[in-house]
Structures are given as structure tokens and as C-alpha cells.
Amino acid sequence: MYDVIIIGAGPAGCTAARELACSGYEVLLVEKFKLPRNKSCSGVLIKKSMDLVRQYFGEEVPEYTMCRPADNRGMIFTTDRGQEYRFEQEGLNIWRSSFDCWLATKAAEAGAELRDETAALSCDEQEDCILVNFKGASLYSEKARIAIVCDGVAGSVRRKLIHAPQNYITTYQTFNKGSIDLDHHYFYAYLQPRLSEYDAWFNVKDDYLIFGVSVRDASKLEHYYSEFIGYMEKHHNAKIEKREKAEKWLMPHIMPGCPINYGKGKVLFAGEAAGFLNPMGEGISAAMESGFFASKAIEKIDLSGDLDLETVYSAYQDNTCALRDYMKRQWNFVAGMAGTFDHMRSEA
Ligand SMILES: Cc1cc2nc3c(=O)[nH]c(=O)nc-3n(C[C@H](O)[C@H](O)[C@H](O)COP(=O)(O)OP(=O)(O)OC[C@H]3O[C@@H](n4cnc5c(N)ncnc54)[C@H](O)[C@@H]3O)c2cc1C
User: Fold this and answer.
1) pTM of the complete model
2) Whether 154 contacts 144, CB under 8 Å
3) What is the average pLDDT value for the chain, to the nearest integer?
4) d(CA 228, CA 216)
5) Using 50, 70 and 90 to split pLDDT, how confident is the model at 343?
6) CA atoms within 13 A on the CB side of 47
7) CATH match of 2-71+93-166+255-347 with 3.50.50.60
8) Is the pLDDT of residue 347 over 60?
9) If we measure between CA atoms, which residue out of 347, 323, 318 comes closest to residue 333?
10) Which of 105, 181, 195, 235 could form a Cys-Cys staple with 200, CB 3.0–4.6 A?
11) Which residue, judged by its Cα, is nearest atom 34 of ligand 1?
12) Which of 169, 153, 115, 167 lies closest to 269, judged by CA?
């Protein structure tokens, strides 16, 4: 019997695992894929994420996780009204595969048992524990007093538990060799309905020029992508010599009020699985913070007797209250900038 089983070794799961292991709990951290695994991401660590890494992992982000240019100097948003908003800020440009793998290694070094290539299939609530069913080399189960599900945006474990419909945004980005007249140190977002149903973006990682669009209706991907490439050719002299790869992913479609699902019974949710996501490039920081606060909430109770879940949930909600308010303000701020996020404006 573990004290806590954590499902998903992204920033939320690794932060929760390290915190609990450091506090002496028996922790099992499972990851569906072999580490290092790919995660579609722009890989911008804003200053807040860098600070949280220092705070929760006790170290600076290692250089080997970074790509060229290693420093991200901020974000530049261009809106449908043609206005440019510059957010200058110290940040880092990392590959998620090596960054997340480093986080998982840190959790393991702190004492968490790390099992990759192991998919959690479901969680069964039992009277005194939670039974987690896995598929690794074989089908088997493990028990824990409590679990944290950090299985990301479309995680099947969370979906099986709450049976709630979820709206997704589809993201699509391509990695290209070529040239462009933009400063490689910035992340560029285009909040223009002509170019995407959500946002379109450009950034540079090593020798790749990355162009991305996000849409609610996946059948419109190609249309928006070609509009966006045409726009970048015209306005920024983009020249694509060779497309090396392309990837599709999902993001939660955040609704006004930023509803968060904190969990069900002895299973807490954290990170994107719970609904934590900020629009200003802050998925990683929101995931780490929520993973940390989920584990802090568990530390509030005695795991050896009857579980005081009321205390766990109220501590988790109280601790993440500021994060949630911040998310609402950020979404509202972005909605104020551009018509593409109008639906978020109602929560002013
Ligand atoms: C295109 C794109 C660009 C982005 N750019 C940025 C950015 O520049 N900066 C930023 O801060 N955020 C960015 N984000 C958001 C950020 O990537 C996410 O918000 C963040 O990764 C969420 O962390 P998480 O730990 O909740 O989930 P994830 O990072 O998704 O981790 C979930 C983990 O759970 C594993 N898993 C899933 N199911 C199971 C299972 N059944 N059993 C075991 N393991 C399982 C997955 O394999 C994965 O490793 C971007 C997102 C997208 C889509």
C-alpha cells in the first residue's frame, strides 16, 4: 500500500511527487510513455515558472533542457485591431521532453518510485484505499490511501471518474527550416480571428521556425494554418524551405469563471486535468502550483486512520484560490485585448 499514487509525470505530477516524497510519504509516480516523452508545447518558461522550479525543486533549470536561443525575452501579442502588446520578461526556452524528464528524475531522487511505460487505466474507490489499475508489461493493480490524477488535458482516468463532457481546443504546430525577419528571442501570438479561432503563434527552437494555430473546429485547421503562413510571409518575410514535422494536440477550452474540478473522493485532480491553465503562456506554472498545493492539502491529514477528505478538499481549494483568481484576471485581460477571446470577458 502506497501513501499516494500520482498519475502522469508532467509538471503537475512531478511537483506533487517530489513534495510528498520530500515529506517522507511513500509515493508511486506513473507515466504512460517512456521518459523522456514528447509533449507538444512552445516550451516557454516564464519567470514565474523559473521561480517555482527553484522553490519546489531547489535548483535552477539545467542547461541541457534548453534550446537555442536559451533565453526567452517575453511575448508579443498582435491583436485583431492591429495593436501590438509587448510583455518583456526574463524567461527560458526549453524542450519539454528533457525538462519534464528532469522534473521526474528530481521526484525520484527525492524518494518517489517512478514507473514509466505504465498507463493507469482506472481508479476504483474502496472503503479504506484507492485501487489503481495499470497496464505496463502486464495488467495489474496497486493500492494507495489517496491518489492525485495529473494526466493532462484529455486524460482518460479523470474522464472515467467524472463522466463530464469537455470542450477542447485543437492545436497544430509545424517545425520548419527557413528564415524570418523576427527576433528569435520572443514568443509571438496573433489574436486575430482571420488567422485562428483562438490564437496563432510563432517561436524558434534550435534551428526550427515553429508556426502554430489553435481552433475549436478541427476541420478548419488547414484553412487557418494556410492563412497564418500567408500572413507571416507577407508581414514578416517568412520563408519556409522544408517542413520537418507537424504535431496536433489538445488544450482545455477554458470557460468564463475558470471552473476547476478538484477531484472525486480519494482522487484529487491537478494541472490541466483539473482545469488549471493561464492564457499568457502559463500552463507549466499553473500545473506546478496546483500539483504542489494538492500535495500540501494531503499533508494536512493523517493517512493512517479514516481520511478527513473534507479537510483535504478545503485546504486544496483555499490554497489555489489566489491561482484561480489570477487565472480569471489573466483570461479577462486577454479578452480585453482581442475579439478572439470575447467569450471570456463576461467574468470581469
Ligand atoms: C501547443 C501548446 C503550447 C504550449 N506552450 C506553453 C508554454 O510555452 N509555456 C507554458 O507554460 N505552457 C504551455 N502550454 C501548456 C502546458 O503545456 C500545459 O498546461 C502543461 O503541460 C500541463 O501540465 P500537466 O502536468 O497538467 O499535464 P501534462 O504536461 O500534459 O502531463 C500529463 C502527463 O500524464 C501522462 N498521462 C496521461 N494519461 C496517463 C495515464 N493514463 N497513465 C499514466 N500517465 C498518463 C501524459 O503522458 C503526460 O506525461 C502549451 C500547450 C500547448 C498544447
Assistant:
1) 0.97
2) no
3) 94
4) 16
5) low
6) 7
7) yes
8) no
9) 347
10) 195
11) 8
12) 153
Identical topology for domains 2-71+93-166+255-347 and 168-252: no
Query: DSSP class of residue 254?
Result: P
Q: How far is CA 321 from the centre of its chain?
A: 18
Q: Which residues of 265-276 are buried (b: 16+ CB within 10 A; e: fewer)?
A: ebbbbbbbbbbb
Cα-based angle 287, 289, 291 (whole degrees, multiple of 5):
65
pLDDT tens, 167-191?
Answer: 899 999 999 999 999 999 999 999 9
Calpha distance 175→40 (Å, rounded)? 11
**What span, in angstroms and rounded, lies between the C-alpha atoms of 142 and 123?**
10
Query: What does the pLDDT read at residue 344?
Result: 64
Residue boundaries of the structural domains of the chain: 2-71+93-166+255-347, 168-252
Could you identify the atom of ligand 1 that is nearest to the CA of residue 121? Answer: 41
Write the DSSP symbol of residue 60: P
Crossing angle for the helix pair 283-299 and 11-22, to the nearest 10 degrees: 30
* Whether 228 contacts 215, CB under 8 Å: no
**Ligand 1 atom nearest 49 alpha carbon:** 11
End-to-end CA distance of the chain: 46
DSSP assigned state of 24: T
Question: Which residue's CA is the nearest one to ligand 1's atom 2?
Answer: 41
Superfamily of domain 168-252 in the CATH hierarchy: D-Amino Acid Oxidase, subunit A, domain 2 (3.30.9.10)
Cβ atoms of residues 52 and 91 within 8 Å? no
Other beta carbons within 10 angstroms of residue 334's beta carbon come to: 22
Best residue among 89, 151, 198, 248 to mutate for probing ligand 1, ranked by most atoms within 8 Å of CB = 151
